[in-house]
What does this fold into?
Amino acid sequence: MKPVFSLAPEVYGQMLDRLSSLFFTDKLGFEPDMNFYRDDQWLSDTAVIDQLNCRRGTWEISLLFAHYKTPMKFISRRIAANTCPKKAGTMAFYMRRLAAKDQRGTLKVDIADMNLTMN
Amino acid sequence: MNTKQRILEAAIRLFNVDGVANVRLQQIADETGISVGNLAYHFKNKEAIVTAVYEMLFDEFSQILSSYLLGPNLTEFDRQLMLYHSFFSKYRFYLIDLFEIERSYPAIIDRWHQFVRKMLMQIRKRLDYNVQRGILLQEPISGIYDTLTNNIWMTITFWMPQQVLKGEPVSESLFKDAVWAQISPYFTLKGLDEFAAEVRPLDLHN
It folds into this structure.
C-alpha cells in the first residue's frame, strides 16, 4: 500500500482539541453580521473636510463626511489629536486625503442639494 | 468511469456478496464485462485489486474523518453519521473479511487500526466539546464517557451486520437512531432543545 503521513495519536488528539476550541471562538457568521459594513458604505460616497479644534491643550483632528448627493446626511468623527498645531494640520491634511473617495477634492457638496428653504 | 474504476466497483460488489477470499479474477472480469487478459493489463493479480480497493476505501474513510473540520457540534455529527452509514453500506465486506485480511494483508489491517483509533478519538473529542458547551452532562461516573465512546464506535461499525443477523431492516434513519440513543441519556435540557431543533424532533410521548 502507498505510504501515508500519519500523526502520533497524542498529536492527533491535540489537533482535535485545537479544532474544537476554534468553534468556541470562531463561530459561523450570519448575514446580519455584515450590517456594520452595509451601514457605513455610504461613507465611501462622501466629500470630506478636516477640522481642527483646540480642546484641553491639544489639537483634535475631526473629519466631517457629507454625502455628496444628500449633504444633510453627514457625520463628524474625531480621528486623532496632537499637541503641536502644525503637526495636527499636517495629520489632518493627509487623513482627509486618505478618507476621501476623491482625493483631489473635485467631489464637492453642492449647496443646492441641501434643499434649504429661505422662508 | 474508466476501466480501472469499473473493475474496482465490480470487485467491491462481488466482495460484498461472496467475500474477498471467494472471488476469482474471472468473476471480476465477467462482472466488469471485459476479458481476464484485459483485467490483467490493469491489475496483475488479485492482490493488486484488493490493495487498490482498500486504497479507495481508506481515501473515503479519510474524507469522512476530515468532516470533523466542519464542526464538532450535534448537526455536524449527524451529517458525519450519514457518511459513515453510506461508507459501511458500500464496503460491507469489511466485516466478512476482517480475519482473512488480518491474516493475509497485514499492511491493510495496520491502516484499519490507525483509522479506528482516529475515529475513536474524534468521538471522544465530540463528547468533550459538547460537555464544554453545556449540551451534555459532566461525566456522571469517572470513565463512563470512554465506555460511551467505545459503544458509539461499536454501534457505527457493527450496527448493519447485527441488523442482518436479526433479520431486521437496515436504513440510515434507524442507524442514526441507534447511535443517538447511546448519547441522548446524557443530554442536558439545553442539549435536548438543540437536538430537537437542529437534528431531529424527539418523540416526547416515549
In short: Chain A touches chain B at residues 1-2, 4, 6, 9, 12-13, 16-17, 19-20, 23-24, 28 (CB under 8 Å).
